[in-house]
Amino acid sequence: MKLGLSSKIRLFILLAMLISISSYFSLLFFISGSDIEKNLKNDLSNIIWGSLILNFGLSLYLIGNIGNYIHKSLAAVRFLIQEISKGNYNVQVDIPCDTDPEIQNVMGSLDYMQEVILHYDNLKKEKIVENRNRIIKMLNLSIDGFIILNIKGQIIYISDVIKKYFKYLEENTDIVNTHFQADVELSIKKYILQIIKTHSKIDPQTYYISSLKKHIFVKGNLVRDSRGIPIGIVICVNNLESGEKDTN
Q1: Cα 224–Cα 230–Cα 235 angle in degrees, nearest 5
Q2: Residue 160 CB: number of other CB atoms within 10 A?
Q3: DSSP single-letter state for residue 91
Q4: 5-32 and 38-85 are packed helices; what angle lies between their axes, rounded to 10 degrees?
Q5: Each residue of 123-138: pLDDT tens digit?
Q6: Torsion of CA 126, 132, 137, 141, to 10 degrees
Q7: Is the pTM above the cut of 0.70?
Q8: Mean pLDDT for each consecutive 10-residue tract of the chain (248 residues)?
Q9: Which of 6, 132, 147, 208 could potentially form a cystine with 235 if both were Cys, beta carbons 3.0 to 4.6 Å apart?
Q10: Where are the domains positioned within the chain?
Q11: CATH classification code of 142-238
């Protein structure tokens, strides 16, 4: 069976104690059989017995407390690793001045790792925001209207064209449980509910919008994750505007 660090250290201390005790008893045996002066023999014996008792007590103390010492020394390391595993890359941990230098080196390496991860995480976030803004600008330049929802029907994004003609549609609205005007209820919402219910692509549909006095053409598609599970919906509404979009 593989021994842990604490067990290995305890085993080492135990072996060292046994070797030391054997040495002390060898010295006592040698002194007892020698012809040195009796007083000197007693003094040496007392010194050896005192050292033996001190060595034995210290060894037992270390064997009993080495696990707690290692646990306390690694507590900061363990806490930092747990926070990093949760995605918290900006944790500051105070290390006592008397902490083992090796533990300090490990903490230093973990702090540096946090800085690197945080740097690349910020770069990734900036890139995501940059790409999102670029896509939003492209959608807003289109004469078609776009609505992006999650698979539960929560509106995530509405393009400017949709906002212009359907002012009562707002982002962060639950389209499933919100009642809208009849023009939207019987067209865009009806189409979206079909996709949410079936979790499949629906053929494009044409709806007459009385408030606009025109027909609109609604089409949509599912957004899937890497496993193919539907996570969102993109809706495109045609024929809201004709000609080029005014860029002023």
Answers
A1: 80
A2: 14
A3: -
A4: 180
A5: 888 998 898 899 888 8
A6: 160
A7: no
A8: 66 79 76 69 76 79 72 74 79 65 76 84 89 88 93 94 91 93 93 94 93 93 93 94 49
A9: 147
A10: 5-87, 142-238
A11: 3.30.450.20
